[in-house]
């Protein structure tokens, strides 16, 4: 809480202190406010919310840099170019990108899962061995095991995901997929139907039921 309060205090201080370019700085904050407060982005990494505010922030930077030595500006530009090249080369390869994300946030689940998807299945499973206990991690293990044609092990992984979230219709449906791959048709049908009871609009479960010869019409309110 104290860090958040300090951040708000610093922002308020910058807004109140008169300086060249303050007008453009305030305009930038005004343009940023809708997507960062009233209408927050679903993904914290939604860079598009900065597109319009950056017009004002760049104008503010231009006003502030008018009195700066051109050699300093040139050095800053060269530094930014070097940083851009470094990260452009890093982001070309998904495995390198998510490895860097994992290094910076070792306890985060999303980088582990994305890295496992970027690697070959066997390496992906190895990557998830020491991942934090999480439903999404267990589900990804099951998906990789199904890719490797190991439905028995996948059933265990999907069962773990279901244990972590017993009311998740998708986890139930995933478990049914593994059961069907093991030849347990009746058990798979029962699980798919249970998944549809939890979420009548779960199209994956309905399509898999149809493959097993059980046709279930979708409710009219499902897209």
Structural features, described:
This protein is an all-alpha fold and 223 residues long. It is 71% helix and 0% strand. Helix 6 (109-118) packs antiparallel against helix 7 (121-127), helix 6 (109-118) packs parallel to helix 8 (135-147) and helix 10 runs antiparallel to helix 11 (185-198). It is elongated.
Keywords:
223 residues, mainly alpha, 71% helix
In short:
The chain has twelve helices and no strands. By secondary structure, the chain is an all-alpha fold.
Low-pLDDT residue intervals, each spanning 5 or more residues: none
Compressed to H and E, one letter per element, the order equals: HHHHHHHHHHHH
Structural class: mainly alpha
User: What kind of sheet is the major sheet?
Assistant: none
Supply the number of helical segments. Answer: 12
Average pLDDT reading: 90
